[in-house]
Amino acid sequence: MPTGLSLHIGLNKVDPAAYDGWDGTLLACENDARDMAAVGRAAGFEDTLVLTGDGTVENITGELRAAAARLKAGDILLFTYSGHGGQMPNTTGSDVEPDRQDETLVFFDRQFLDDELYREFRRFEEGVRIVALLDCCHSGSAIESVHELLTPEAMRSHFQTSDPDGLEAASRMMPLFRQQQAFEQHRDLYEGLQRELREGNGGGPTPGAVLIAACQDNQVASDGDVNGLFTAQLLKVWKEGAFRGDYRTFHRNIQQRMPAIQSPNFYTTGNPSEEFLRQKPFTV
Predict the structure, then answer these.
(1) Is residue 140's pLDDT more than 80?
(2) Which end of the chain is more exposed for a tag (fewer CB within 10 A), N or C?
(3) Is the torsion defined by CA of 18, 150, 134, 116 positive or negative?
């Protein structure tokens, strides 16, 4: 019988010392992680929960590498992240992204580059199924940068508020000036990582992965009082396991419940098999 491991990360804050005094307070990320862990547990996954202060790069990569050592072809990893998303300038190496930005997950002690997550997934044996759900502002390599599209005026319109503090509380996007401050504070570290990742991402072929992000490249994800907007609608669609359909249908049904200003994105890496894609979500 296949083995299912799940890793659920929820960060309601980050370490101010790592982000030039910003603690990135959010309300619902730990709840998201707990609720997704319950979903995984009910589906037969062995779950691991990582919350706020434990959400460091060392801890999270350690859990991913432990999972990679255990899982074999036919097994499955469920990876969920709830917290801030960010971007940073990407000008190193020959493989510069079209928008000259690296997308990041904002972990407790530093930003985690999209290419770092890709590198961790490549540590898994070919044939391992990977499902990743990201409830954050998670911009891909869009032609238009989110920095250009999400001006302060657009942000106020998006969240229907004129209060700057309200914008930060409502959005899971790391504020733009904070992104720049954090990058400048640790420029040598991040540019070194970018060079390392461009020179060789390590590992083998990427296992078939299904990734569902909370929003499109040029959008931001909303926080909430209990759950983030994306996670809240996902849980309603899932209906404690009563949902019937495959991964594409699951994404489409979530998307139909979301406002136009936040439209979840569905994408795959590593050529997941049609058999995998046709499975009911979270099938071990």
Answers:
(1) no
(2) N
(3) negative
pTM attached to this predicted model: 0.85
Residue from 29, 136, 137, 215 carrying the catalytic annotation: 137
Query: How buried is residue 38: exposed, middle or buried, by Cβ count under 10 Å (0-12/13-18/19+)?
Result: middle
Phi and psi torsions of 239, nearest 5°:
55, 45
Beta bridge partners, 87, equal 103
**Do the strands 101-106 and 265-269 form a parallel or antiparallel pair, or are they unpaired?**
unpaired
Q: Is 212 in contact with 220 (CB distance < 8 Å)? A: no
| pLDDT value, residue 181 | 73
Catalytic entry in 84, 138, 186, 251: 84
Q: Are 59 and 108 in contact (CB under 8 A)?
A: no
Is 158 one of the annotated active-site residues of the chain? no
Backbone angles phi, psi at 167, to 5 degrees: -60, -45
In CATH terms, the fold of domain 4-277 is Rossmann fold (3.40.50)
Task: Say whether 136 is catalytic.
Answer: no
Q: What is the pLDDT of residues 75-84, one digit of tens each?
A: 999 999 999 9
Confidence of residue 196 (pLDDT cuts 50, 70, 90): confident
CA atoms within 13 A on the CB side of 16: 4
